[in-house]
Amino acid sequence: QDVQKESEPHVYLSKEEVKEKIESYNSSVTDKLKMTLNANGIYTGFIKVQMELCRPITVQSSQSQGRCAHSNNETAFYLPDGCVNTLHISSTNTVREVIEALLKKFFVADNPAKFALYKRCHKEDQVYTCKLSDREHPLYLRLVAGPRTEMLSFVLREHETGEVMWEAFTIPELQNFLRILDKEENEQLQILKKRYAAYRDKLEEALSGVWKPG
Q1: Which residues of 145-165 are buried (b: 16+ CB within 10 A; e: fewer)?
Q2: What pLDDT does 166 receive?
Q3: What's the CA gap between 188 and 182, in Å, rounded?
Q4: Which PANTHER family match (predicted)?
Q5: Is residue 1 predicted with pLDDT exceeding 60?
Q6: The CATH number fitting domain 15-60+71-161, selected from 3.10.20.90, 3.40.50.720, 3.40.50.1820, 2.60.40.150
Q7: Which residues make Cβ contacts (< 8 Å) with residue 91, sequence separation at least 6?
Q8: Measuring CA to CA, which residue among 109, 127, 110, 130 is closest to residue 118?
Q9: Is the dihedral of CA 37, 42, 44, 50 positive or negative?
Q10: CA 67 from centre of chain
Q11: Residues 6+ apart with CB under 8 A from 168
Q12: Is 86 helix (H, G, I), strand (E, B) or coil?
């Protein structure tokens, strides 16, 4: 179960505490994605972000995989489910900067303001998610939680506004969405036609057996 959770208060660590936590973190890492503490107190490391996007994204590319619709040099397509991206960031990078870096890595042309970063953690039999504010620091959260993704993971989603704010999209984006919807509608229509044709054949076969002249 995915349960919304309020943001937890930020606890500031001293330089010595940061050093100790990084040493403990690196000793527990199993994928070689360790953190590095610099002389100025800033540390760098890696975070993994799972992409859970319901709507298509627009990329500045003419070559993209998946279901897509083209418009000039931009392509709208759905990211595959469970897509995970790894970013190398520093302790000074904010949530907003992480979102921008993710979109840049995928050549996404959409406005970063359309997206939000969530943290997901497992406690007992429940999964909790919490939307992060733009000023929070994901690498700090990763350090405090440790390297285990079941303790903490990051998820990129669209902003949950209740209704889609279509005015936030550009004309090419909207045109691409319409092409995708038309394609999906036609595909579903063909599936329904085949299903009902099969039902009709079975009914007609059954009726011909019942009403055979004696």
Answers
A1: bebebeebbbbbbeeeeeeee
A2: 66
A3: 10
A4: RAS ASSOCIATION DOMAIN-CONTAINING PROTEIN 3, RASSF
A5: no
A6: 3.10.20.90
A7: 42, 43, 44, 137, 139, 140, 143
A8: 130
A9: positive
A10: 17
A11: 111, 113, 114
A12: strand
pLDDT level of residue 138 (50, 70, 90 thresholds): very high
Least confident of 4-18, 25-39, 131-145: 4-18
Beta bridge partners of 155: 50, 118
Burial 18-47 (b: 16+ CB within 10 A, else e): beebbeebbeeeeeeeebebeeeeebbbbb
**Tokens standing for residue 35:** 């953190």
**What average pLDDT does the structure give for the chain?**
81
Cα 190 to Cα 78, 178, 185, 195, 200: the distances in Å are: 21, 18, 9, 9, 15
Question: Which pair of structure tokens corresponds to residue 172?
Answer: 């090419």
Q: Which two tokens stand for residue 111?
A: 């406005």
